[in-house]
Amino acid sequence: MLHILRFLLIAATSVVGYFFAPFISKAESAPFWGVVFGFAVGCLIVLVEILLERYSVQTLVAATLGLIAGLIGGNLLAYALSQTVEAPEYLYVLIVLVCGYTGTMLGAAKLRDLPLLASLGTRQGGGTILNVLDTSVIIDGRIADVIEAGFLPGTVVIPRFVLKEIQLIADSSNPLKRNRGRRGLEILNKIQKSALARVEILDKEYADVPTVDEKLLRLSEDLDASLVTNDYNLNQVAELQGVKILNLNNLANALKAVVLPGEMLAVQVVKEGKEAGQGVGYLDDGTMVVVENGRPRIGEGLDVLVTSVLQTAAGRMIFGKIPGSEDYVSSGPS
Questions:
Q1: 199/196 Cα distance (integer angstroms)
Q2: Which residues is 132 bridged to in the sheet?
Q3: What are phi and psi of 59, to 5 degrees?
Q4: Are 130-254 and 264-321 equal in CATH topology?
């Protein structure tokens, strides 16, 4: 659809050029050159629209400054050469074009980091904090509660390509994927209805970027936004590229209650442990509690005395015993 609209725009500017040209020039070739000029204007508008979609404002401004500097330098160099040596005119034109191209590339790569330009186009909405949601954090669902609690200030940005990915998952023939996709759509609906959420569905697309993760990284860089995710690999790549990350798993771990040896916990033993006699229960935040001699008490709610706490790559584990058990032997870390 977008390509059709662009084609119609170019056609319209060409037609306008055809009918408008005779008012400027009475020459017989005026309509032809009017069409050419209108076609060029339409193509220029489409080109600017594509560039604005793919590149940030500061990059485009820096590239323009580099182009101007390159053209000025190229003209000066061509003029200096014309005063010293005789050469075909096309050589001078070529020098100007090469200098203009070089200036554009150097400007886009270097000048955009200048403090004056770095502040352009990095925040939308007059300095509003932007938070881009990825697919994993939407399907996870906890983000809706975080927003409802008021712990995610600013504007929630949901890219159109993320919404499309969730819709594809919801239409999957795999029941598990289909349920996850539908849950994601329900969470989006909940976020949009929240009085504390300012939600923006962003239509920005990156046709030259193949994967959703890469699009999310590019979008977050262009908007100078925080990327909200639960995806470990995306988290690692984003940190390498300097993209700001809000990881809900890290937030959940940081909010878990601190438990010290010697404290008492109320735990319901729900299953057997790996070692003989052990039972396993869970706290409300999902932390595993290994209870010595708890196997015979599966299904019961117990008061457990904490003996040690172990932090692993998978999370935190708490080891405890039932007070008064006579044959207790700690299997936790000493």
A1: 10
A2: 157, 227
A3: -65, -40
A4: no
Residue 230 and residue 137 in contact, taking contact as beta carbons nearer than 8 Å: yes
pLDDT in tens, 101-146: 888 888 877 765 565 555 444 444 444 688 999 999 999 989 998 9
Q: What percentage of the chain exceeds 70 in pLDDT?
A: 88
Q: What tokens does 308 get?
A: 């040690």
* pLDDT (tens digit per residue) in 41-86: 888 888 777 766 666 666 777 788 888 888 898 888 888 888 887 7
Q: Which CATH number fits domain 130-254: 3.40.50.1010, 3.90.640.10, 3.30.1320.10, 3.40.190.10?
A: 3.40.50.1010
8 Å CB contact between 224 and 155 = no
Whole-model pTM above 0.85? no
CA angle 63/124/163 to nearest 5° reads: 105
At the topology level, CATH places domain 264-321 in OB fold (Dihydrolipoamide Acetyltransferase, E2P) (2.40.50)
- Identify whether the C-beta of residue 78 lies closer than 8 Å to the C-beta of residue 244: no
Say how far apart CA 297 and CA 270 lie, in whole Å: 9
Residue 279 · residue 294 · CB < 8 Å: yes
Mean pLDDT of 212-217: 92
